[in-house]
Design a protein that fits this description.
- The chain is α/β, with parallel strands linked by helices.
- It is built from 35 helices and 45 strands.
- The strands form 11 sheets. The protein has a 7-stranded mixed beta sheet. The chain has a 7-stranded mixed beta sheet with strand order 7-8-9-10-11-20-21, covered by helices on one side. Strands 14-13-15-12-16-19 form a 6-stranded parallel beta sheet, sandwiched between helices.
- It is flat.
- About 7% of the residues have low confidence.
Length: 1066
């Protein structure tokens, strides 16, 4: 057996190790130096791959994990040896694709900007992946020559594996990068049941002991909060794979626990893609994350959370210009990527902080910045720009590498004959070598390119512990089995002995315990299938993926009781039941499915959930018939029997029906006071009886409502009544001999109310943009949800079914706010006005009598359209529309009036101050021959209407120069277009005429709102900027700047208002 470190031997980075055993060459990892340039052709970035040719080539490649310092050179190895298969765990293969794709992008940018030759191209990477073979974590493969390779969890990052190799020449364990402690995402390593002759072990922190992780996490989160509270940004450069996910979760967790304030958390760079990859492998994550993802959640980016991805480069400037925030970005050493950009912008401001939490290479910018932290006059070059270091710089120990003590403990546990230390600098390797030598371990620390030769004699100990399947201690009767594995028998043998009762087992170990020497790959597969399907006897250990633990005897006994209960309830689906939820409250539910241990039920305010059999309190009676609801021939889920098809539709209908039913039950329930009911049952002097029997004995009205109320009361007050239950029989109830001296407290709600954000999300789903729902409110004291529609009357009729469904699904009492949205009422008038009709003033809203009046110029011959307009407005808004047609003939039809008055229309309202630019001339006060004021008003209105102007108000004003008439247009810019006409009218009337210098802000915003396409998704009110003469809108789906519809709207707003229109895409 021979070993050679081509790279990563006497250094951290460019890990590349060749193992010769049993006449084959096995390459373990092929990375690059992260201090070097991944985009360049510099040989400093690569291990010495030429040594592979001298050694006779490569027969197979094994990958420990997906960091670039372990995979960055794989495409070059594949180009030289295209026939060699590449083995890695499934998540490592997934992550390799992400990281190598990012490396290709960086190389492409460098090639264009700096004319550097890339190491490889996309075609080579694609060809390489055709030779990549994913291996299950905890599984094994057989290489040519009979070398068997085991993949043991390494605990470093998602998918990281220790590689155990066993052949005729001996056994080797290559650790790759390892972490002993549990992280927030993955569990730490478990020492494998593998006795290596040779241990090739990393030594990154061979001369260090890690600080307490919980204390470091708490201090880091506190530092970030402190920086943000002082008005600065906190940048956390993090490795995109592993560290970044940990930082996101720990800061968010501290916020959720209330330990630090709420503030934005921005995530930038490749971190976003890696987070998505984690969602693809929940089975390899720790229990809480696994459950959260399996329930459809995203632990990194919540819909309503504070963690937000930076989705485009231009957004980075907005992040820096925005509110103080925590920024988590790659790369972790500031060698490139978004973190270098942010650092270059933040480093010269003492309010900001740059916080490191991982390994820093000696040549990296991160290491240089840490060295300069205490030098007040120091400068650093980041992104080609030299900047003075004035920000706060800190480092915390959240490493995913094992420390010196953990490495020594692993070596002591494995007891190898030889230890080879790699992946560490000289100081770390020497310190760890001394520690191991003190424990009588033969330790070697080779230089890159140095061959090591080994020869191991296979003794009795080695033969007994060569693989996980060969345990010497085996519970049981001493004979090997050949039949299918029986989980009950295997479990019974394990829990019978204290020494095996609480141990963790892999599937391979359990297979060996069952089959012993007769174990075959087929038998191992049968045991794996047994563990996958078994729910009673063995449970996957959430702290340690790929391991199983025998369940406790009390847990197994509980499941046996559940089975006996469910066996007596074969026809439970379709029944109305009472159950006790996890919080101890009695709730009504509709059973829609069962399995061997419990049942599934819909409840008001909660989604359909599984309940253990012992939570069932009472079967009230039939609710629906599964045979009638189910579609013929529809397949059922394997674990759920009797589940209706089109579940979402059926669930909504049934929950609405249950909601209405419980409103009736509530009335009866309140009449059955606990103490009065106890006295009546005691006076009967009767033994234990079922709910149906007590209904008859107490003379209560027969019916499902009364039966439900009585059963609810009997189960809800254990201090008054007892319950006896035997599987297969009806529950029996009896009153207690004594009751509490105090009366029972107030009755609790009969339904659960959905969490507020979830309830509001249901409302958003039920009512789309077309519904006009613009606001929602929750009153926790009354349990009411209020819906605010633009037009509440029509909405309550049109969406009555959805409103009822909202109450049934969420458990909140839903009401519709009765008042219409005034802005929407005015917008509706403008939308419905026929072409050519000229609106002469703002619509007037009369909220007391639900009436809207408008004054508009109706073209001759179109008076009959007014009746259709009034009818359409009533249907749309539920309000009466009154149209005034000044100077025209009377218009027939209800609600349409004519009016000839031309006085103050009550529009925008002017101001007394006058801008000199708004005066038509220097005329001071009316002349001696000036018209009577109302005649002057009418003359001005008529003259401007003839010129095509829309006049909102004409009124008399006074200043130091005397009286004058002020004309209000939608904006003074529009008024300036009619200066010539105004000059003529001034001469005609004898009155000074001036333009109102203030714009009609409400009218301009209303025009903008009505011009927006529904598909663009207008958010909130348009922003109004008078000085800039601009209106800005925020759109969810902003059209491109050259979109014809958008250009037409911009042109229209400019023509009507004199203002420019801008949009922001959110």
């Amino acid at each position: 057996m021979r070993f050679l470190a081509l790279g990563g031997g006497s250094e951290v980075g460019a890990s590349c190790n060749l193992l010769q055993m049993d006449n084959i060459n096995i390459l373990m990892d092929a990375g690059i130096r992260m201090g070097g340039d991944v985009a360049g052709a510099s040989t400093d970035a690569l291990p010495d791959l030429a040594l592979l040719q001298e050694a006779g080539g490569v027969d197979a490649v094994l990958v420990s994990h997906a960091h670039l310092d372990h995979i960055g050179a794989l495409p070059l190895v594949h180009r030289a040896y295209p026939a060699a298969p590449i083995y890695a765990t499934a998540p490592t293969v997934h992550l390799m694709r992400v990281l190598l794709a990012d490396a290709l992008k960086i190389m492409s940018i460098k090639a264009e900007q700096e004319l550097e030759c890339p190491l490889y191209d996309a075609d080579l990477v694609a060809r390489m992946f055709t030779r990549v073979v994913p291996v299950p974590m905890g599984g094994n493969i057989m290489l040519p020559g009979g070398v068997k390779v085991f993949f043991f969890p390494a605990g470093h990052i998602l998918g990281a594996a220790m590689l155990g190799l066993e052949g005729a020449a001996g056994r080797v364990l290559y650790t790759g990068d390892i972490s002993a402690g549990n992280q927030r995402t993955i569990a730490g390593l478990v020492a494998p049941d593998f006795a290596p002759h040779l241990l090739v072990m990393e030594s990154t922190y061979g001369n260090r002991l890690h600080a307490n992780r919980q204390r470091e996490e708490k201090t880091l989160a506190g530092t970030v909060a402190e920086v943000i509270a002082s008005g600065g940004h906190a940048l956390v450069p993090a490795f995109a794979l592993g560290r970044a996910q940990e930082i996101i979760l720990l800061i968010a967790a501290h916020q959720q626990a209330g330990l630090i304030p709420q503030f934005p958390i921005w995530v930038d760079g490749m971190v976003r893609s890696i987070c998505q990859a984690y969602l693809n492998f929940p089975e390899l994550l720790r229990g809480p994350l696994k459950r959260f993802i399996n329930n459809g959640g995203n632990p990194f980016f919540h819909d309503k959370g504070l963690v937000r991805p930076v989705t485009a480069a231009p957004l980075r400037e907005k992040v820096l210009a925005g509110a103080p925030a925590c920024i988590i970005a790659s790369s972790g050493m500031l060698t490139g990527g978004p973190s270098q950009f942010y650092a270059s912008r933040l480093v010269n401001d003492p309010r900001n902080a740059i916080i490191f939490c991982g390994y820093q290479d000696e040549e990296s910018p991160g290491k240089r910045l840490l060295a300069l932290a205490d030098d007040p006059g120091a400068t650093i070059t980041l992104g080609g720009v030299e900047t003075r270091v004035q920000c706060r710089v800190a480092q915390y120990g959240l490493s995913a590498h094992a420390d010196a003590g953990e490495l020594a403990s692993l070596a002591a546990r494995l007891r190898p004959r030889r230890v080879v230390l790699v992946h560490g600098d000289d100081e770390a390797r020497q310190a760890l070598a001394q520690t191991l030598a003190d424990n009588r371990r033969a330790v070697l620390a080779p230089e890159n390119g140095q061959w090591l030769d080994f020869s191991f004699r296979r003794g009795r100990r080695e033969g007994a512990a060569a693989a996980p399947a060969a345990r010497s201690s085996r519970p049981g009767s001493g004979h090997w089995r050949s039949g299918p594995p029986d989980p009950a028998v295997l479990w019974d043998e394990l829990v019978r002995k204290p020494s095996t009762r609480n141990k963790l087992y892999t599937a391979e170990e359990l297979a060996a315990l069952w089959y012993g020497g007769a174990l075959t790959p087929e038998g191992q597969a049968r045991v794996a299938e047994m563990l996958e399907s078994d729910r009673r006897y063995f449970a996957a250990d959430w702290k340690h993926p790929y391991f199983y633990r025998p369940r406790r005897p009390d847990q197994v006994a509980a499941d046996r009781l559940r089975e006996s209960i469910m066996q007596g309830l074969p026809h439970l689906p379709g029944k109305l039941v009472l159950l006790r939820d996890a919080g101890g409250a009695v709730r009504a539910g509709i059973c829609y499915g069962v399995d061997e241990l419990g049942f599934y039920a819909w409840k008001v305010g909660r989604d359909g959930t599984w309940h253990p059999a012992e939570s069932l309190l009472e079967v009230i009676g039939p609710w629906y018939k599964p045979g009638e609801v189910n579609a013929p021939g529809k397949e059922k889920k394997a674990r759920v029997l009797g589940e209706p098809p089109e579940e979402s539709v059926v669930r909504a209908e049934q929950k609405q029906r249950l909601h209405r039913f419980l409103l009736q039950v509530k009335h009866v329930y309140r009449q059955l006071k606990p103490r009065v009911l106890w006295e009546k049952i005691r006076n009967q002097a009767h033994g234990p009886a079922s709910v149906a029997q007590w209904l008859n004995l107490l003379g209560l009205e027969a019916g499902m409502e009364t039966q439900t109320a009585l059963a609810w009361r009997l189960n809800n007050h254990p201090d008054y009544f007892t319950r006896q239950f035997t599987p297969g029989e009806l529950p029996l109830y009896q009153c207690r001999a004594e009751v509490p001296g105090e009366e029972a407290g107030p009755d609790e709600d009969m339904v659960d109310r959905m969490e507020q954000n979830a309830a509001l999300a249901v409302a958003d789903k039920l009512f789309g943009p077309a519904s006009g729902l613009y606001r929602k409110g929750l009153d926790f004291s009354s349990g009411e949800m209020t819906l605010y529609f633009h037009f509440p009357g029509p909405a309550a009729k049109r969406y009555g079914q959805q409103i009822e469904e909202l109450g049934a699904v969420t458990g909140w009492s839903v009401k519709v706010h009765p008042e219409a949205h005034h802005g929407a009422l005015a917008d509706a008038v403008r939308r419905l006005l026929p072409p050519g009709w000229q609106l002469l003033r703002n619509p007037s809203i009369h909220r007391e009598d639900e009436r809207v009046s408008v004054r508009c110029e109706i073209p001759p011959g179109e008076e009959e359209l007014a009746l259709e307009l009034v009818k359409g407005y009533k249907e749309l808004t539920g309000q009466q529309l009154v149209i005034e047609n000044p100077g025209g003939e009377p218009v027939a039809g209800g609600g349409v009036l004519s009016a000839a008055g031309a006085g103050d229309a009550g529009g925008a309202g002017g101001v007394t101050g006058i801008d000199g630019k708004t005066a038509i001339s220097g005329m001071a006060g009316p002349g001696d021959e000036a018209m009577e004021i109302n005649a002057a008003y009418a003359t001005i209105r008529a003259g401007l209407q003839q010129a095509g102007a829309v006049v909102y108000k004409v009124g008399k004003k006074r200043d130091s120069g005397g009286e004058y008439i002020e004309v209000s247009f939608i904006s003074p810019e529009v008024g300036e277009r009619y200066r010539k006409q105004l000059a003529g009218l001034q001469a005609q009337t004898g009155w000074p005429v001036r333009i109102n210098p203030r714009p009609n802000q409400n009218e301009i915003k209303s025009l903008v709102r009505s011009a927006m396409e529904p598909a663009w998704g207008l958010v909130k009110e348009p922003g109004f900027f008078e000085k800039e003469r601009m209106v800005r809108v925020k759109l969810r789906n902003a059209p491109p700047g050259d979109d014809p519809k958008w250009k037409a709207v911009v042109e229209k707003i400019g023509l009507l208002t004199g203002y420019t229109l801008e949009c922001i895409n959110i």
